[in-house]
Amino acid sequence: MQLREDIRNIAIIAHVDHGKTTLVDQLLKYSGTFRENEQVDERAMDSGDIERERGITILAKNTAINYHDTRINILDTPGHADFGGEVERIMKMVDGVALVVDAYEGTMPQTRFVLKKALEQKLTPIVVLNKIDRPNARPQEVVDEVLDLFIELGADDEQLEFPVVYASAINGTSGLEPEEQEETMDPIFSTILEHIPAPVDTREDPLQFQVTLLDYNDYVGRIGVGRVIRGSIKVGQQVVVMKKDGSTKSFRISKLFGFIGLKRIEIEEAVAGDIVAVSGLDDINVGETICPVDHQEALPFLRIDEPTLQ
Ligand code: GDP
User: Is 77 annotated in some ligand binding site?
Assistant: First the structure.
């Protein structure tokens, strides 16, 4: 089995305010994914406007970080229970999660909500105990709380082996022990590379790409974001999209976008394991599978949240 060692796909999950955004900013900065004179002037994951169409809320952002020879896609997840379907869909694109927990506050309701989803999807977890600089931080106790929560939520034996990295995202320090902090994010990156499984390289198989999130752009219209589950996808390729009712629609991939940092860039081709955005069909919807014309095989449909009427 060939693995794509050049890629890791993870979701970052946390209770609100435990420091996801600060951490991702720090990982971006430290990795040098931004050019030297380029400011991180937009906070990484608060940049999106909330868009709604047909009850689908687009909050997720992909941040692609190049660390040495590996591309790490970090997908943000909403912590709120109203977005359960979206959280599940995002988790279908990744192989692991980084659970961020405030070393003073400990586990909170949204910690439980998002961790439950990740464990159910059999994802590989790592834990980042953040804010260890807080004067009243209690890292050891909080690690015990996290372990109890894993057990209570039915984590399997492998998931219970989660590694812990201690960090102060705000100060840019991290380490494998609370009191042994280095002024780099290397301990977090090496924990991700070591523990999160690399995607299986199935680029020789027939294409399957599942639309997991939607985005829009005045220039290219509707954009479907997802992971190349199998095979490869190219600009100009003739494909079919398989709809929920079993019908299909043929279209040509007009543009493909990859990610660098917080930016989307045009690319020519993507292969199994890559998270990319596709344009070319205006009525593409969440959950649909894009396949080659001569090999039509839909993936199981994905759950979509009902709009909350309040
Ligand atoms: P998010 O809601 O999980 O994205 O959390 P943010 O990254 O927006 O952080 C929430 C608040 O916690 C902000 O005021 C941050 O400045 C602060 N914060 C983030 N990381 C740390 C940290 O390591 N130490 C301390 N003391 N504060 C932090």
Answer: no
Distance of CA 209 to the CA centre of its chain: 16
Mean pLDDT on 161-173:
97
Residue 249 has pLDDT above 90, yes or no: yes
At 282, list the tokens.
């205006």
Distance from the alpha carbon of residue 243 to the mean position of ligand 1, in angstroms: 41
Length reported for the chain? 310
Ligand 1 residue neighbourhood (C-beta within 6 Å): 14, 16-22, 130-131, 133-134, 168-170
Q: What is the pTM of this model?
A: 0.90
Give pLDDT tens digits for 69-103.
Answer: 999 999 988 777 677 788 888 999 999 999 999 99
The 10 Å CB-count burial string (b at 16+, else e) for 153-168 is eebeeebeebbbbbbb
Q: What is the mean pLDDT of residues 231-252?
A: 94
Q: Give the pLDDT confidence of 263-284 residue by residue, as tens digits.
A: 788 999 999 999 999 998 888 8
- Rounded mean pLDDT, 232-240: 96
259/141 Cα distance (integer angstroms):
38
Could you tell me the distance, in angstroms and rounded to a whole number, from the CA of residue 232 to the centre of ligand 1? 38
CA distance linking residue 87 with residue 213, whole number of Å:
11
133 is in an annotated binding site: yes
- Among 90, 75, 85, CA closest to 8: 75
- What is the Cβ-side half-sphere exposure of residue 248, based on CA atoms within 13 angstroms? 17
Ligand 1 nearest atom to the CA of residue 134, by list position: 26
